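Section handout 9: paired folding examples.
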Amino acid sequence: MRKNEPVLTMIFHTTDLKRVFLCTKTASQPKYELLKELVEVHNKEHGPKNEIKLVYLLLEKIPAPEQIERNSVIIFDDVVSEKMDEKIGLFFMRSRHQGHTIIYLS
């Protein structure tokens, strides 16, 4: 099983999901093109009230966990770096209280 298959399953089975934040330097990968297409299909089928927004961010620009809308999924993919470990660590410590789901792929 490839690492992105469980991620896609988790995203679309998260209740009341509002946003998916993708923090990666390689957002043009086929798996993220698929994610974009799946979000578009979801939005067409479920309408504006249940719309999911897909947000691409560089790790350096991601806001603090408390500033991100509740019930969001944050995906960190291939962002291993000593200077960013502390910032990513904050998401694992604080995001549960914000209703976020954190996914770290490496």
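Moving on to protein 2 of 2.
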Amino acid sequence: MTPLAGSVSDSVSNLNCLTSDSFDGEPYSVIAHSLGGVVALRLAAGDEPVERIFTMSSPFDGNKAATMLNMVFNLTTVFADIIPLGSTIRSVR
């Protein structure tokens, strides 16, 4: 379990390091909640041997509130990552 750190891309990079050390190229499953589901799909879209992904309450259509939150709290990329039709959400659809 890894907390979201920065952006979805940052989390995918962190997980790539963690999984390569932990699973040594063997297939594995991912269980993810909320934004972790978006991270999991981005992880599987890369070279990772993800066998299955189980997601719960993941914002695959983005989150309209994220648009407003991104304008107010533009110090973090997390809100930008879940703007409906933003580049991160488009990449997992």
